[in-house]
Specification:
The protein is mainly α and 239 residues long. It has helices at residues 11-45, 50-78, 92-117, 127-155, 183-189, 191-216, 223-238. Helix 2 runs antiparallel to helix 3 (92-117), helix 3 (92-117) runs antiparallel to helix 4 (127-155) and helix 5 crosses helix 6 (191-216). One of its GO terms (cellular component) is mitochondrial inner membrane.
């Protein structure tokens, strides 16, 4: 990396990058200990129910897997590629896996915590409520996919290709959208296609969240649920 990209880097500039990486690793280890040590204590005291024990073990495994994925990702940026003259960078596939794993871990931890802290509302299972729940699940999947596409943008530095919006340069659909062969490879390895997909997914996510909010206004919902939907719309717009 030093020879091909940062040959003019000073020691102070290197230290800045090094400390960022070091802090990230240490923070990850602190997060792991903050989860595993209390979980072991609660387990030993007999405070965990049988279903909760399974969930705790799954989350514990996910914490360890997340750290392993982080190491595997960084390793890809340090490997020698004799046939490549590209800028050294981590694999966009491993970066997306690392981010996706972190999102699953965070969501599962939050869901578990809120399930224990807040009693579940018992609402009549009307057709409208079922549709709202299904739509919320679909919106969640769309947002997750959008976030993963962002990891591919970061991994390929695809944000540097076009910096205009809503058009990409002078065109709505750029010429090099499907420049790679086979066509499927463009989705994951062509910076133009990766940025184009991320834009489309981002717009689709905001639209889906707005539609979810409007649909929820037609259904009598508890105050806590209404606050959650409104907060989701606010965060989507801010994002």
């Amino acid at each position: 990396s030093f020879n091909s990209l940062n040959h003019d880097m000073t020691l102070a500039e290197f230290k800045f990058i090094w400390y960022m990486e070091y802090s990230h690793r240490m923070w990850g280890r602190v997060v792991g200990l903050a989860y595993i040590l209390p979980a072991a204590y609660f387990w030993r005291r007999g405070w965990l129910s049988r279903p909760l024990k399974g969930r705790v073990l799954a989350l514990c495994g996910l914490v360890c897997f997340q750290g392993l994925l982080g190491w595997y990702m960084v390793k890809s940026g340090l490997e020698e590629k004799p046939d490549s003259y590209d800028i050294p960078r981590v694999s966009q596939y491993r970066l997306a896996a690392h981010l996706g794993s972190a999102l699953v871990l965070y969501s599962a931890s939050l869901w578990t915590g809120l399930s224990l802290l807040l009693p579940r509302h018992k609402l009549p299972e009307t057709h409208q409520l079922l549709r709202l729940r299904q739509y919320a699940h679909g919106t969640t999947a769309l947002i997750f996919l959008t976030a993963l596409s962002g990891a591919f943008v970061a991994g390929l530095d695809a944000g540097l290709v076009y910096n205009s919006f809503p058009k990409m340069g002078e065109r709505w659909i750029p010429d090099d959208l499907l420049a790679f062969s086979p066509v499927l490879r463009n989705i994951f390895e062509n910076p133009t296609t990766v940025q184009f997909d991320h834009r489309i997914l981002g717009i689709a996510s905001v639209t889906a969240v707005a539609a979810l909010y409007l649909f929820s206004r037609k259904i009598p919902l508890p105050r806590r649920t209404r606050m959650a939907v409104t907060s989701l719309l606010a965060v989507a717009c801010m994002q």
